[in-house]
Amino acid sequence: MPAPAPLRDPAPMLERALGEWGGRGDLWIFGYGSLIWRPDFAFAERHAATVHGWHRALKMWSRVNRGTPECPGLVFGMLPGGSCRGMVFRVPRAHGHQVMVNLWQREMVLGVYDPRWLPCKTPGGQVQALAFTLSRSSPSHTGVLADEEYRRIFAQASGIYGSTRDYAEATHAELLRLGIHDRALARLLALCKEHL
């Protein structure tokens, strides 16, 4: 069982992200996991977008939302390398600060992610959007997991927001609805269905 990650204070990261945004224009947020199907914030528009240099991976330990300390689950992180298709959301400037604060309460309670401003290609051009990335050196990064470990986690892990399996299936369903095919995620889901 993985050791719990040391807590990082999320407040300085929020202040830095707010400073980098600056409030001079609308706020853009890039969603690649549950933010796609449950953003929990009001937005003026959203578009399909691609980020290069990062990819979506079900390789981040979750001990609260989708698992427990005794039976950790998994959530998505954005890891270096490859590319990632997701959605960008435009939040009007007047609401940007509060949306950022709310996002931190949802995504950064334990300070695990590394928030970054990434160039996102959209049908209307490129925008700089806030994305929650994960370092491979983070204790919350799973590293390589065997298929059998994925099967066990999908069968057993559940937290305050439900099971790892439900989370992965909901994300996959929304990606397909948007015309986004994530082969790695589809393989994991098929693997676990075979097991069941």
Structural class: alpha+beta
Q: Which word captures the global form?
A: globular
Give the neighbour order of strands across the main sheet.
1-3-2
Determine the fraction of residues in helical runs and give it as a percent range: 25-40%
Fill in the CATH topology: Hypothetical upf0131 protein ytfp
Describe the main β-sheet briefly: 3 strands, antiparallel
Q: What distance lies between the first and last C-alpha atoms, to the nearest angstrom? A: 23 Å
How many helix segments?
Answer: 6
Any guess at the CATH architecture?
Answer: Roll
Order of helices and strands: HEHEEHEEHEEHH
Contiguous uncertain segments of 5+ residues: none
Radius of gyration: 16 Å
Write up what this structure looks like.
This protein has helices at 10-21, 34-37, 93-107, 147-156, 164-177, 183-195, and strands spanning 27-31, 45-62, 73-91, 114-122, 125-133, 158-159, 162-163. With 196 residues, the chain is α+β, with helices and mostly antiparallel strands. It has a single domain, classed as Hypothetical upf0131 protein ytfp (Roll). The chain has a three-stranded antiparallel beta sheet. Strands 4-5 form a two-stranded antiparallel sheet. Strands 6-7 form a two-stranded antiparallel ribbon. A hairpin with a 2-residue loop joins strand 6 (158-159) and strand 7 (162-163).
